[in-house]
Amino acid sequence: MQISFQTDVGKKRNSNQDYVAVFKNQAAITLAILADGMGGHQAGDVASKMAVEGIGAKWQETAIDSPEKACSWFVTAIQAANDAVYELGQEKPELQGMGTTIVCVAVFAEEFALAHVGDSRMYLVRDHEITQLTEDHSLVNELVRSGEISQEMAAVHPRRNVLTRSVGMPGLVEVDIASHFYKDGDYLLLASDGLTNMLTDDVIKWIIDEPISLNEKVQKLISGANDAGGADNITVLLIEIGGTAHD
After folding, report:
1. Where is the PPM-type phosphatase domain (predicted)?
2. Dist. CA 21–CA 124, nearest whole Å
3. What mean pLDDT do residues 89-108 have?
4. Is 0.85 surpassed by the pTM of this model?
5. From residue 206, how far is each of 48, 126, 130, 135, 211 by CA, in Å?
6. For 116-146, what is each residue's pLDDT tens digit?
């Protein structure tokens, strides 16, 4: 398994509110986490880093060795991150209302477990096909699912950035969890909406399928989003199954 990741401020933002990191637990299981923060001033930066580092630190203390255990753990860990982000926002007026998306994946011997809240996405690229494994927790996706608007209308909807779920809200946060088998040659992609709002799934797939290194694939995805306008922070984490071990 090989991992590459990169984050970029994009062309329109003054700061980068995305955060991405990789952690290993006591059973040597890798957990990759990506977050896209929101909030005025620097509040989004605080929320995304706090959530990722908080979940990651907890993961490092575990010896979880199965996707079933990981899925259960994700719900508890993301709830703890939610509470911590919300409470800090209540304590500091300049951080009030901050929040973040979360998407994370833990890779085991034959399967991977994933969890997410918000509109940061996970994709599987297998045999030249791309599949979105997460469902956006957003207003426009609810409208698409109900048949009120089309996918094409959703892409330009004035409220396309409004989330229906995020980390940093009062009370319980609903976490989507799943596990899937993988095979050699698969690619697992975590991405903030700064990538997926700029590039179509087909373009993302074409770049990942190119015969270039994993780092070059990640760089090309970032560059492609910037070339398309770079309207938001862009963060990409790409895992190649069956690649050279990542240290």
Report:
1. 2-241
2. 19
3. 96
4. yes
5. 29, 12, 9, 22, 10
6. 999 999 999 999 999 999 999 999 889 988 9
